[in-house]
Every structure is written in C-alpha cells, then in structure tokens.
Amino acid sequence: MEENKMCSKASSEKDDFQKIANKVSFYTIIWNVVLSVVKFLAGVIAHSNAMISDAVHSASDVFSTIVVIIGIRLASKEADKEHPYGHERLECVAAIILAVVLFITGLGIGFEALKNIFAGDYSKIQVPGILALAAAILSIVVKEAMYWYTRHYAKKIDSAALMADAWHHRSDALSSVGALVGIGGARMGYPVMDSVASLVIFVFIVKAAYEIFKDAMDKMVDHSCDEETEKQIYDCVMENEQVRGIDLLQTRIFGNKIYVDVEILVDASYTLGEAHRIAESVHDHIEQKFSKVKHIMVHVNPWEENPS
Q: Is the pLDDT reported for residue 235 higher than 90?
C-alpha cells in the first residue's frame, strides 16, 4: 500500500513538472516569435545592425526553448531496463545544446560587429531611426519580464533546462540594453556605436552560454552537493538516536536530483534485523526531509564502546 502511494506521488510530481514546463515554454515561444519579428523589422526599417543582431538573438531563443521542451520531456521518462537510474541527465544534455547554440549565435554577432568597427570608414554607416530605439525599449521590458516568469517556475520545479532558458531571456534583455545604448549613441552623432552595441551583445551572449554550460556539466559529472546541503543531510542522519556516528557521507547530483551514500555506525550488539530497521529509518527520514533526493544507499557498520 505504501509503495503504491509513493509511486502515485512520484507520477503526480512528474505530471506537474511536465505541465508547468510545457506552459512556460509555450508562452516563451509565442513572445520570442513576436519579439523576433518586431525587432527584425525595426532593425531593417530603421537601419540598425544592433537591432537586427538582437532579433537574431531572440530568434535563437525559439530554437533554445524547443530544445528545452524536448530535454524536459525525455528527462521525465520513467526508468527502464536500459536506464535503471532514470533519464534526468537528458535535461542537462538539452542545457548543453542550448549553451552551444548561444555561443555560436554570439560568435556570429561579434564577428560582424568587429568587421564594421575595423572597417574604419564610419561615414557610410547609416544612423538608426527612432523605431529601432522604441523596439529596444520594448525588448528590454518584455525579456526582463520573461526572465522573472521563467525563473519563478524553474525554481518551483527545479529544472536546470528551464533555468537555462530563463538566463537566456536575461541575456537577451541585457543585449537589448546594449542595443539601446548603441542606437542612442549613433543617433547622437556616433554611428559606430551601433556596431559597438552589437559587440557588447556578443559579450553578454557568450557569458550566458558559459554559465549554462558549466552548470550543466557539473550535473553531468556527478558533482557533489554544496557543503550546506551535505551538513543538513548529516544532521538529519544523526537525529536518529540509535546512530552512533557516520563513517562516510557522499552525495552526487544526478540531473536535478541528488543521490546519497552513507555509512552509519550502530551498536554491534544489535541483531541484523534491528540494524536493518535503523537503516530503513535513516533512509525514510532523509527521503521525507529532502524532496530532491532520489536515491539513498545506507550501509551499516558495527560500533563497539570498548573495542579490544
């Protein structure tokens, strides 16, 4: 009966995870498509390379969100014979793909900006129109709102891919700030500022790509939890009065979940059955207290008060 309840709870949590991720991703795609079209048209009509670069950045968000949807869907699959530990790491794969797309997008924008800057003849650069300035302001407001919206739900369901998508929105908002400054500078008599703005956008995009890539790789290579979380798990184990000490406590991050291996000390005089019940109690207590913990291995070592 208890096992059925746990399975039902796990299934419900996965359904909620999928629903929230799909809802956020749907709104993200709609807004990014609208913004991409508006910024691209504004860039072409108002002769702003910075705004066209920003439009490309927003368009890459659409592809990134599709990658996030696929990654989350695959990561939510139940464990099977070939993947007994589940598929959570596939979400990290999605985040890595997203980071690579961001990096390549940034390189393209940076290369074009440098080419215009080092061309030397700025007299041929057209001054951006007021429409480009308005599009930059609109982009900053919308993308910052999308960042906070996506970030809220990424934290709620603890999704690395969704959080990566949130930072993608923030990088787009920051790039629009760069575009705004560049367009404003160009309209004040410094046409090269439009290209300088594109270069600033490149820096923000590459920085965001690096942070997303590093976070995903940490979760792919069994990185341990932070010290605070490990201390909390340690204290949780020691709350059991029959546990005399801990010989070993190891944690590793698996996708967006935590795996725990712990060796506890119990009185050597206990029977095998009693030691097993203590281990089960420790296991269940950790599971109840830490929702992110997916798997716990508790090993029992004998403790003797006066060893010979």
A: yes
Q: How far is CA 61 from CA 86, 132, 179, 202, in A?
A: 28, 20, 17, 15
Percent of the chain with pLDDT strictly greater than 90: 17
Does the residue 308 lie in any domain?
no
Cα angle 258-287-81, degrees, rounded to a multiple of 5: 60
Do 279 and 159 share a structural domain? no
Query: In this predicted model, what pLDDT tens digit does every residue of 98-113 receive, in sequence order?
Result: 788 778 877 877 887 7
Q: Which domain holds residue 126?
A: 2-220
Q: Looking at the structure, do residues 283 and 239 belong to the same domain, yes or no?
A: yes
Q: How far apart are the C-alpha atoms of 157 and 16, rounded to whole Å?
A: 8
**If we measure between CA atoms, which residue out of 177, 157, 153 comes closest to residue 75?**
157
Alpha helices in 46-88 (DSSP H): 49-75
Give the CATH number, domain containing residue 243.
Answer: 3.30.70.1350
Identify the three-state secondary structure at position 252.
strand
pTM here is: 0.55
**Does residue 239 sit within a domain?**
yes
- pLDDT bucket at 276, cuts 50 / 70 / 90: very high
- Residue 24 parent element (H or E): helix 2-45
Asked, for residue 290, whether it belongs to a domain, the answer is yes
Residues 241 and 215 in one domain: no
For residues 108 and 70, the answer to whether their CB atoms sit within 8 Å is no
What is the domain count for the chain?
2
Asked if residue 251 and residue 108 are part of one domain, the reply reads no
Percentage of the chain lying above the pLDDT 70 cut: 78
| Residues with Cβ within 8 Å of residue 141, at least 6 apart in sequence | none
Per residue in 6-49, pLDDT (tens digit) is: 444 445 555 666 678 778 878 888 888 888 899 889 888 888 87
